[in-house]
Amino acid sequence: MHRIRLHVRILIAPDKFKGSLSAPQASQAISRGLQTVWPDAQIDLAPIADGGEGFAESLAVALGAEWVTAASQDAIGRPIKARYAWLPGEHLAILEMSEASGLHRIAQDERDPLRADTFGTGVLIEDAVARGARRILVGLGGSATTDGGTGAARALGFRFLDKNGREFPAVPGTLLSLARIERPSNLRLPEIFAACDVQNPLLGERGASRIYGPQKGADAESVKFLDSALSRLAEICVASLGCDHRNVPGAGAAGGLGFGLLTFCGATIRPGFDMIAETLHLEKRIAAADLVITGEGRIDDQTLDGKGPSGVALLARNAGKSVIAFGGSVTTAAEGTGMFDAVIPIADRPITLEEAMREAASLLERASRRAAQLMCIRK
Q: What's domain 55-273's superfamily in CATH?
């Protein structure tokens, strides 16, 4: 194959291709494809994430963090080993709620929306506090729970009491019995930032239960119950703790863990992509590039609504740079927005979803090679 000697600077900043490639793996696949055509290109890899799965890995790679493994439990109480990233010099812990309390750990026939909780995530936060964390970043996404963060709060020592003053395990199915919450007297938490890529409030039509409950196993009746349970939780939080975060954008993220971190931990919610972009100095790196490449497993309406690739595209547009997006699948709506200069599906033949996920690395590499060849022809 004829190789083009072209001194071009390319920033490669994809999100994960969910279920098949992490963001760093996707970055490497795109780089391999481009370099077969442009061997002299200066390539800068900046794998990204929003608040969902891949958040901790992207930051860990960028910061050179180490991984800490701790005993925890999954969303239905089974013992597991879970990890988070740790930067000793800064006493910074970076964790994802999905690591312990994620849907990926629960088989479809095991999903139990009235029982699943975030206790395991609270255990990881507690472990980071005991390690001396001065700041904790928590990625919200991939949740198996709709507990409003009550499980995490219990792990940190909060007590949930019924009308008779008896403590009980506050899981979604029992929250309607909640009458009072007691804060632990000795709780000392560092700064906690919750990384979130959605704007949903805790309750109502756009709330945690109605929007995300069905994917966690909730039928129509359960969705209604869960919304009532979370409403009860919010009311008792006002009465017992004196704060009301139910309408904060992002409170409904991760089954209401956004609400829980705000309420029980005094956390601040921030867009996950913004946190990644600042850490990676993306604005500066985009300004130095001739071409920006991003992508994720599915480019659709959700991509356009503030997810990682759209954040990269916006920064590129502001800097006057061309931006290309690769997708495992691409919707017509995403192609027609003008957000990207080109949106390229990676499949090069009729293929099943299973094959596409299994062959994602080679498909992405070949797609990036074809894109580079076409750009050379255009020049």
A: Glycerate kinase, domain 2 (3.90.1510.10)
